Structures are given as C-alpha cells and as structure tokens.
C-alpha cells in the first residue's frame, strides 16, 4: 500500500468556542457500573437489520459517555444459561420480557446495574429512536428508576448509507437525552479498550459489483435515459469509486442533480470535475443552467450583487430591546458552557428553545457547541432549526456565524486528515492491527460524511460561498479515500489503495487552496 499524502497544516483556533474537555484525576476510578442493553425493537417502517445497527450505535454512544460499560443481552450466552440453571431466571423470563420492569428484573438477576432498551421507527426519511434506561430499586419492594430519551434525524440521500448516518445522529441524541438524566451523578472513567467489530455502526459492508468502468458508465447512461435518476446516480458513483479521475461521471451526476432540483449537490460535482480537468466551457454551461433555475425560483436575474466586505469589523449579536421568557435558561446554558459542562449546557439551551421556539439564540448556541466538539450530524439538524427561526440574519451576524463555524470545521478537518495518515502509518509499521485500522476508518468515514453535510449547510455570506464549496468537496474526497481503503481491507483489491491516494491528494489540494 503506497504511503499516502502527509498533511501538515497550521490553522487558527477560536479558543472561546473550540476546546477539548480534559479528564481530571477524579475521573479515573477503577471500574464503571455495567448496563445490560437489549436489542432495539424494529418499529414502524424499520427492518430488523436496521434495528440491529441502531442497537450497535446506541451501545457505542453509551460507552462514549465513559460512565457505564455496556453488554448486549444474549439469551444463549453462558452467563444467562447459568442463571437459568441456578434458577435465578426462568426460561420464560429470558424470552418474554415485554414490560420494562421485566427487563430490569432480568438485568438485576444477572447482577447488572442498569438495563436499557427501546425502539427505532422510520417514516420516509425521518428516523426516530425511543430509548429508556432503568435501575432496580434499592430494596425489593422499591419501584425501579426509569429514564427516557428520544432522538430523531433525517436521512440524506438514498440507500443504507443515508439511513446509517441518520441512525448515528438519532442514537447520539437519544443516548445524550437519556444519559443526562440517568448518569448525571456518575463519575466519568476513560475507556481503556478499543472498539471491536461488535461496536461497528455499519449496516452492510461495501460490495463491488465486479463491473468495469465502461459497463457501469453504460448502465448509468441507460438508467438516466429511462428516467431512473436514482439508479443512474448509483452507477455514476460506482464509476467514481473505481476511477477517481473520471470527471465525466461527475458532470453526468451534476446534470442529473440539476434535473432533480438539487442545485447545491450539482455545484459541488461541477467544482470537483473542473478540479480534475473537465472542460471549462462544459462546466460553465452547467453553472449557467443552475443559475437559470435559481433565477426562476428566486424571481430575480442571475446577476450577483456586489460581495460584502469581509474586513468589516464585527458587531455583537443583535441587541434585544425587551426581555425574553427564556433569557435565564440561555444564561444558565452559557454558564455551563464556560464551565465546559457541555451536556448540561445543551440541556439548558434545549429548554430555552422550548420556552420560546421563535428565538434564534438557543439554536445558534447549540449549533456552535455541537460543532465545537465535533458532533456535526447533530449540528446539521440544529442549523435547520436555526435557519427556520432566523431565516434572514443581519450581515454582521451571518459573518460572525461563518467565522466561528469555518474555524471549527478547519480544526476538525485538519484532525481528520492527520488521523487518516497516522492510522495508515500505525497499520503499515505493525503497531496497529487490521481490525483496529478498519474500525478507525469506519468511524472516520461517518465523521467526514457528516462534515461534508455540515459544510453544505454552513451559514455563509455570499463572498464565502465558493470557499465553503471547497470545504465540502474536500471532506467528500477524503471520505471517498477512506471508503477506498475500507474496500481494499474488505476485498484485498490493491487498486483501491491507488484510488485512495488520488482522493486524498485532491482533498489536500482543495482544502489548502480554499483561502487563495
């Protein structure tokens, strides 16, 4: 496997927003309580494999709280069978645990501290995870303690990848919601073990159809001519994975996206194709096609207004001339954020948003906080709420938001590039196992996909939109590099490593040229 491009970047860090929460000596206790996790139920619209993937994601995020260890319930496991033999449990108890208290009793009989279960429901592109955690009472006659959490997200794109990303976001939100209530008083203890394949959030591994680039291109053209645009998109993306330099497939994708009204996606593909050497006249033709559609939608012509001056001094966030009912909750969230109590700050901001849904400030703070700690999936969802509450922000507010979000993105993208290279180096010199390398890349792939979505919806003034397009493209290219390495690890196809080098190099070029 060829040594990939080494990225060395120096970026400014916005200290007041971007930070890492340190682990104190008090956090380093000897052991954590153990939670028994039952597989989530496949609710309305959800398949069983999706429920299994959601369970894996919930387990991962529960472990990430660093407050509990998590064991999946398996009725065939030795510990369960031994409990049946010793009559601590009956066969009926381990097969018909319908009620919450039944599951808590099973956990208690197996000497676990907590139980957790829930369900996942899918309505169109909307994913919703309902989660609950329970703890037995101190005495036999005491009722168990039960906490609930809910998380929801919308799948972007089609197929299992879009669902997997939405599951990740919904699971993270549900666990955060439930864990804040259940584990608020517990000490955080850093994990000592690495992720295993059981913790993978993948629904299915990538599969190579075996078709040549020419065959895939022909199938894409045939599907596009028949009006099967979703199928055509899939074929053209397979072309790109096999042949990263094939800009024709990107132009085909752009044309389909324009027809479907996905102008932002089309612009991204045109930029990527042009960077790979596509004919500038063809790129301009497609851009004009987008501009014509945009003009019809907006009711204006395609002439751009003069760009605002990016050197204008900052102004404070809009002054309020009256008191809002949620001011005290926002102040409480700000105090927690300053104290680096991230979870508590998010809870306060959510409560502030419930008190006054029309106030943009809680959403703005939540989005910045999510981005600062690298939770870009959650940030994307919050930005949608922010745009709804504040669709036309004043120029200086928009510029300030962009400055914060862009610095945050750049910091995390630099970290992702370093992780991409360091994980390869560790695998190449034998200090990391193949399984560890694979799991690291799976996690990095999800992170980069979410970062690309974040860049696409990042609030940006007109003068910064072209820069933002490069950020999104860079994240997408690096995600494709990771996908190629994963495919190599799954199939042994060494050609995928060359694809990875091309994608990674392009990501580096786009990211380092964004400010030029």
Write out key terms for the chains shown.
globular; disordered N terminus; single chain; alpha/beta; about 525 residues; 6 strands
Give a verbal description of the structure.
The protein has 516 residues and is of the alpha/beta class. The chain contains 17 helices and six strands. Strands 1, 2, 3, 4, 5 and 6 form a six-stranded mixed β-sheet that branches. A hairpin with a 2-residue loop joins strand 4 (114-123) and strand 5 (126-135). Helix 8 runs antiparallel to helix 9 (280-298).
Q: What are the SSEs and their pairings?
A:
Elements: E1 34-37, E2 41-42, H1 48-64, E3 69-72, H2 78-85, H3 100-109, E4 114-123, E5 126-135, E6 145-154, H4 159-182, H5 213-225, H6 229-242, H7 247-259, H8 263-275, H9 280-298, H10 327-338, H11 342-355, H12 361-372, H13 376-389, H14 395-428, H15 434-457, H16 465-491, H17 495-513
Parallel strand pairs: 1-3, 1-4, 2-4
Antiparallel strand pairs: 4-5, 5-6
């Amino acid at each position: 496997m060829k040594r990939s491009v080494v990225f060395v970047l120096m970026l400014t860090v916005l200290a007041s927003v971007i930070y890492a929460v340190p682990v104190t000596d008090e956090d380093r206790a000897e052991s954590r309580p153990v939670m028994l996790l039952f597989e989530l139920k496949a609710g309305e619209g959800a398949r069983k494999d999706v429920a299994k993937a959601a369970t894996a994601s919930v387990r991962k995020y529960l472990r990430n709280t660093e407050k509990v260890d998590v064991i999946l319930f398996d009725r065939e496991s030795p510990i369960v069978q031994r409990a049946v033999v010793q009559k601590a449990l009956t066969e009926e108890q381990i097969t018909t645990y319908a009620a919450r208290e039944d599951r808590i009793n099973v956990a208690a009989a197996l000497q676990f501290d907590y139980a957790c279960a829930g369900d996942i429901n899918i309505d169109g592109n909307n994913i919703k995870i309902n989660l609950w955690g329970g703890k037995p009472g101190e005495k036999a006659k005491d009722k168990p303690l039960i906490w609930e959490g809910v998380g929801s997200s919308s799948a972007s794109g089609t197929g299992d990848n879009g669902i997997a990303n939405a599951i990740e976001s919904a699971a993270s939100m549900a666990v955060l919601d439930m864990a804040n209530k259940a584990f608020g008083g517990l000490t955080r203890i850093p994990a000592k073990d690495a992720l295993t394949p059981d913790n993978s959030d993948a629904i299915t591994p990538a599969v190579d159809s075996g078709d040549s680039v020419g065959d895939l291109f022909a199938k894409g053209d045939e599907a596009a001519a028949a009006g099967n645009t979703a199928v055509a998109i899939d074929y053209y993306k397979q072309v790109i994975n096999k042949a990263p330099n094939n800009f024709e497939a990107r132009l085909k994708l752009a044309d389909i996206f324009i027809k479907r009204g996905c102008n932002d996606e089309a612009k991204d593909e045109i930029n990527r194709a042009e960077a790979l050497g596509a004919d500038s006249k063809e790129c301009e033709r497609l851009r004009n096609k987008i501009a014509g559609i945009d003009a019809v939608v907006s009711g204006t012509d395609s002439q751009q207004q003069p760009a605002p001056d990016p050197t204008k001094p900052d102004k404070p966030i809009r002054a309020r001339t009256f008191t809002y009912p949620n001011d005290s909750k926002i102040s409480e969230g700000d105090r927690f954020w300053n104290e680096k109590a991230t979870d508590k700050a998010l809870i306060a901001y959510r409560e502030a948003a419930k008190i006054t849904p029309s106030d943009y400030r809680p959403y703005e703070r939540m989005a910045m906080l999510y981005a600062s700690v690298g939770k870009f999936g959650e940030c994307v969802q919050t930005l949608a709420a922010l745009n709804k509450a504040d669709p036309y922000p004043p120029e200086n507010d928009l510029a300030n938001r962009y400055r914060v979000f862009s610095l945050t993105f750049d910091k995390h993208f630099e970290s992702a590039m370093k992780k991409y290279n360091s994980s390869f180096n560790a695998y190449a010199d034998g200090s990391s196992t193949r399984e560890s390398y694979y799991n690291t890349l799976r996690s990095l792939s999800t992170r980069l996909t979410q970062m690309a979505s974040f860049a696409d919806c990042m609030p940006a003034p007109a003068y910064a939109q072209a820069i933002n397009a490069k950020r999104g493209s860079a994240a997408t290219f690096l995600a494709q590099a990771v996908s190629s390495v994963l495919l190599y690890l799954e199939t042994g196809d060494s050609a995928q490593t060359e694809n990875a080098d091309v994608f990674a190099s392009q990501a580096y070029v786009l990211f380092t040229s964004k400010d030029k």
